[in-house]
Design goal:
This protein is an all-alpha fold. The protein contains 6 helices and no strands. It has a domain of 109 residues.
Length: 175
């Protein structure tokens, strides 16, 4: 039973970490991006106990673990964003202590480095191709080709004459 409880605790720490640092969830609730996010580590924490638990606690322990993680995971997902952020921060601290190292720099550091690289490439491009920097006038649109007016066919002329005759015959005579 102790192995099952430990596996549930580790998995729920991973679920809390994922819920607190998920970028899409944070955008949906208009929260700032998480300072650090490592979804692979979070998913490893959620799923790794399921691999080891059948050997440590048997089939019953595995069944209890999968049921508890499912129910409590849905409960964590249903929490309001403020409470989820707190749970995520606490779980992130636990994940950091468990991992003991940083896998990647924080997202805002990567974003700043990417923006700096884009600015450098744009400056390099502008220096190499001065006409391509957006100040060159746009080319004039090509004129549409002229189309010839189609000549009416003999059948169309006959139909038009017949319609004119019918309308003049059907018109009431003025007295």
């Amino acid at each position: 039973m102790a192995a099952t409880l430990a596996a549930i605790a580790v998995s729920l720490a991973g679920v809390g970490y994922l819920a607190g640092t998920d970028p899409k969830r944070r955008r949906a609730f208009r929260l700032p991006p998480a300072a650090r996010s490592s979804p692979r580590l979070g998913w490893a924490l959620v799923l790794a106990p399921g691999v080891l638990l059948p050997f440590a606690a048997g089939g019953a322990g595995f069944t209890v673990w999968i049921g508890a993680v499912s129910v409590v995971g849905w409960a964590i997902a249903a929490l309001p964003p403020e409470r989820t952020a707190r749970v995520g921060r606490r779980c992130a601290g636990l994940v950091d202590r468990l991992a003991g190292f940083r896998l990647r720099p924080p997202a805002h550091d990567r974003l700043a480095a990417l923006e700096a690289r884009i600015r450098a490439l744009e400056a390099q491009l502008a220096a190499a191709h001065p006409a391509a920097n957006g100040h060159e006038p746009a080319p004039a649109p090509k004129p549409r080709p002229r189309t010839r007016k189609a000549e009416p066919t003999a059948e169309a002329v006959k139909i038009a004459r017949r319609t004119e005759l019918q309308s003049s015959v059907a018109a009431p005579r003025s007295r």
